[in-house]
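Quarterly update from the structural biology core.
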Amino acid sequence: MHIVMISTWPPRLCGIAIYAEQLVNALRKDGNKVSIISHTDGGREGESDVYPIIDMTKLDWYIPLIDKINELNPDAVHIQHEYGIYSQLLSGGRFDYGAKTSFVVADFLYRLKVVKRPVVVTYHSIVKDPPIEEKIYLNHTLDLAAANIFHETYQKDCLPWNIGRIPDNIFVIPHGVEEKTDISKHKSKYGAEGKLVIGTMGWWEPNKGVDRLIKWWPKIKKDLDEKTVLMIAGDVRPGSSDGPAYGEVIKEELNKCSERDSILLVKGAFSKEEYNEILSCFDMLVLPYTRATQSGNLAHAYALGIPAVVSAEGGLKSSIEDSRGGIVVNGGDDDFIETLVYLAKNEKLLERLSQNALDYVKNKISWRLISKEHLKVYEWSIEAANI
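Predicted structure, tokenized:
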């Protein structure tokens, strides 16, 4: 089968770019041909079958895509979707990151639908009861694609609140991850040798709760020994409208934290290799999100056997329930603090949750399995597009 993958692509430092590359690698291992259409910063030197033609400085950015798709003439088109990827470039190098300026995607999908082109869209950001513009957006785009993929059943179950119905072209396929042959730690490289590391990672956005974790840290640390540290890895997302202000909030909280000396800050955007090295330092991952859809960080933690403590938000809760690779905190700040202290002191529980996470990857979400689920959806979309 020949698939055209539309997505951000390395060397862009982006979670969806990593996701798309890993999916493409798995599909190719199964004997499929995959061509990639990416944004203009995608594609490494000498890389074949990558066409970096998505130019978000132009309102008609999707017209060259249609021409390239027609030229390649694949069996199916697969679009990786997140609002920020296809939103309008604003002044100062910022992006809208919302549905309002992404609505041209509906025109793009319409033009492919009327010529019966099989299109599959993976939505990486589906929340319950989103803003009205996202509800209107989804109500159109879900029907314009032949098939749509969500990562969590929770996201599909949200649709009655979002658009009043559940279309019959929704498929739930978990976020895939690579099975690791090497899960050794890289603590010495990041100043954490001999330490028990409680960590969080990702782009700094207000919903991520990094500032809350810093505020909790003195209370957590007082019940643990000197070998326990907090590692915060990430930075403001390039082009984010809310990120810069939130980055200042994190900086302020760090400066006034009484236990600042036991916090390791690894600031930056990371390559795939750096990302895995930093994540491997964690003995537990903390995701104290106030709003969430699903988390690629959580899936990658499973692959390294890292237990997670997460808020009871969206797909985070359902993922932990499926994997048994962590703990869901249903309460407030004190409940989070108590859970983190308890887990840090309970080595046997950490080991059990770690093994659960590794088993979940092997039996449920390795790309070896997830790629085959995608192929089933591609085949379904080919039939659906020709009805």
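The first helix runs from residue 15 to 29.
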